[in-house]
Structure formats: C-alpha cells, structure tokens
Design brief:
Helix 3 (about 40-60) packs antiparallel against helix 4. Helices cover about 65% and strands about 10% of the residues. With about 425 residues, the chain is α+β, with helices and mostly antiparallel strands.
Length: about 425
C-alpha cells in the first residue's frame, strides 16, 4: 500500500492537463474506471502516436520503389556574344522529369519490412501499456474500498468505546468500577480517533489517485461488482500464456526489424540501377524534334573507406542485442507470472487465516464482556481484547483487498485484461 501511496504523490506532482473524462451514472465499477483511464492516459495516447510515426516511416520507405515525377522550369539570361554588350540572350527550359528506381540492392523492400515490423511492435506495446494501466486502476480502485472500509471499522470501534465509557461511568457511580478504568477507555478512544483521522486521510489520497487515473471530478463511492474473491487457475495455465504476452510479441517484432536493418546495411555493397527521363516542353538552342531523352544509370560501389562494413557490423550487433532482449522478455514474463502467482496464493492464505482469527477474536471479546459483567476480569483485559479485535479487523480488511489487487496483478502478468 505504501508503494501505491507513493505513486499517488508522484502523480499529483504532475497533474494532467487532459480534458475531464465523461461522467458515469451511479458509482463507477472497475470496468468504468478502466474505460475512463484508457481515454485519460497520456501514455496510451503517446503509444498511438508512435504507431502513426511507424506508419509514416513505412510510407517513406515505400516511396523508394515508386516512380517520381516533377515539373522543372528555368529562365536563364546569358551574354549575347558578338552582339551588343547590352544584349542578353533568353534561354528558357520547361520539362517534365521522371525517375524510376529499378534496383537498389533490395534496400527499400527491407526498409518496408522493417517499418512494418516496427508498426506491429508499437501496436503490441500499446496493448501492453493498456494492460499495465488496468493494474494501476485495480490498485487504486481496491485501495479506495479498503480505506473506506477501514474508516468504517474505526468508526464502529469508536462507537463501541463510547458505549463502553458510558457503561463504565454508570458502574463508577455505583462503586463497581474505578475512575482509572474510565480514563483508560477514554485514552483508547482518543487513539482510535487519531487512527480514524489517518484513515480518512488515506481514503482521500486513494480517492484522488482514482480521480487522477480516470479524470473524474469527484469519486464518492465505487461499486465492486465481484465482492467474492475470484478463484485462480493452476499456475501452469498462466505460464502457458507467458510467450504470447504483448510485450514478448513486441520484442519479437523488434528483433525482426533489427534483422531487416542488417539487410539494409548490406545493400550498400550492391549496385543501384535506375532510369531517368525528361520530356521537354520548351528548350532553347535544341531542335524542336528532340522532345525527350532517357538515361539508364548503373552505379557500382567499389570503395567507400569501410563505411558500409561499419554499418553492417553495427546493424548486426543491434540485431544480436534485440535477440537477447527478446529472450529476456520471455523469461521475464514467466518469472513475473510465477512471482505474481506466489504472491496471490500467499495473499489468499493470509486472508483466510485472518478470517479465522477475526471470528475467534469476536467471540473472545464477547466472552470477555460477559466475564467483566460478572466481575471475573478487570477492565484492562476487556480493553486489550477490544484492541486486539480492532487490529485483526483492520488486518483482515487490508489482506482481503490486497488479495484482490494481487489477483489482478496475476491477470496482467499473464497478459489478460477485463
């Protein structure tokens, strides 16, 4: 929970400038919050722009194999020669220029394949960012419910202590309780009031975190549509999804793009062939019968000082790095699933243990009250029993919603979403 609160402090230090998200009717569910967060998140919008950037690079690579056409116009003034020194000759030229690359060492096709792979990589990275955003939303959503429940628990304890103090005051009047017992109960009530203020602060912090993520102006209540703890599948079922996770697939596309960059670099060793043509509309000094000309060009690289070899080695190194990152991404995904599964199982076990402890503590407090009323124990033992009950209730509440957060962490680790 401390990490979540720290995330909020950092987030609020850089408030969003996006327009407020649309309101929802009634208390928002986690699905509502996630839908609004997807619209609100600048990171998701940034990923979309990276996709558009990759698409633009593909268009630029495609232009390398398509013909080009342009209109050229010039008007030149030159010395008239043997004529008067003040006479200038007008030399106009108007023409349509055509150019068609025929062979470039397959550089353009490799570039198109690389940019296509990059486009798929960016799309997969965007989908993974959306999944990670779901985990942030789930953390904030259940943190808010937890803090509201903690405030309610403390409020109930406070009311119980008030009743306890009234009973002690009545017993003091008839000589069955000491004034020190009343003072001890009042001290415990003041401590609960202090804890209640902290709980209300944490509730406000959790609410602001959810508002930051969703863009909602004020979140008074949220609706948990699945109050029961969902059951998890066997660990093997989640591990099977490790290599199909979006970020792992994105690393595969990144590796493919890097391999195509090697092919682009190697194309610098191959000849380039092209066809250029001109169609003249107006040209001085040339017979009007010459309306066009064409050039067939072949350029064979012989020596470039080692530039191409250096580019090939650099591209090959980057391709090797991309393969290593791809391998690491797959292993990391499997590790994250195992870790999330272990944490979820531990969280469920702790929650179940605290549920049994809570049941026993409630029964113990009830019995302690009966014993006190029969003068079998003193007031300090009753207050200690009440304090134990308060602590277990708060621990159980925290464990319950922590288990829910861990469940969604496991889902996201396995590449799943709502």
């Amino acid at each position: 929970m401390k990490k979540i609160l720290l995330f909020l402090v950092i987030s609020l230090a850089f408030p969003t400038t996006a327009a407020a998200a649309e309101e929802v009717s009634g208390p928002p569910t986690m699905a509502d919050c996630y839908r609004l967060a997807l619209k609100q998140s600048e990171q998701i919008s940034l990923r979309q722009e990276l996709i558009a950037e990759a698409e633009a690079r593909f268009s630029r690579a495609l232009s390398g194999v398509l013909p080009k056409a342009s209109f050229y116009s010039s008007d030149k003034r030159q010395d008239g020669g043997g004529e008067s020194a003040f006479t200038l000759r007008h030399v106009p030229e108007r023409k349509l220029v055509f150019s068609q690359p025929l062979f470039g060492g397959f550089k353009e096709f490799s570039a198109m394949a690389a940019t296509k792979a990059e486009g798929r990589q960016r799309m997969l990275e965007k989908k993974r960012a959306e999944q990670l955003l779901l985990m942030d939303v789930a953390n904030a959503f259940f943190l808010l419910i937890e803090q509201k429940e903690k405030s309610a628990i403390l409020g109930t304890i406070h009311a119980t202590l008030q009743d306890r103090i009234k009973e002690l005051q009545q017993r003091e009047q008839i000589g069955r309780s000491r004034h020190s017992e009343v003072v001890s109960a009042e001290a415990q009530m003041r401590r609960v009031e202090a804890d209640l203020e902290l709980a209300r602060r944490d509730e406000t912090v959790a609410r602001q975190l959810l508002e930051f993520l969703t863009g909602l102006e004020y979140v008074r209540e949220v609706a948990d549509t699945e109050p029961a703890m969902p059951a998890a599948e066997p660990e093997e079922a989640y591990l099977l999804k490790a290599y199909s996770r979006y970020d792992v697939k994105a690393s595969e596309e990144s590796s493919l793009s890097a391999e195509k960059q090697v092919a682009i670099a190697k194309a610098g060793r191959l000849p380039t062939i092209g066809l250029d043509g001109n169609y003249y509309l107006d040209r001085a000094g040339v017979s009007k019968e010459v309306a066009w000309d064409a050039s067939f060009k072949v350029e064979v690289p012989i020596f470039d000082g080692g530039q191409t070899s250096g580019e090939v080695k650099e591209a090959a190194s980057k391709a090797a790095q991309a393969k290593l990152r791809m391998s690491e991404a797959g292993r990391k995904a499997a590790y994250e699933i195992r870790d999330a599964y272990a944490q979820f199982q531990s969280g469920i076990s702790r929650m179940n243990t605290l549920a049994r402890a809570l049941e026993a503590s409630e029964e113990s407090y009830r019995l302690q009250l009966e014993d006190y009323r029969h003068s079998l124990i003193n007031n300090l033992e009753v207050l200690q029993s009440l304090e134990d009950l308060e602590n277990i209730r708060r621990d159980f509440s925290e464990a319950k919603y922590n288990a829910k957060r861990l469940y969604w962490q496991l889902k996201v680790a396995a590449g799943e979403t709502l």
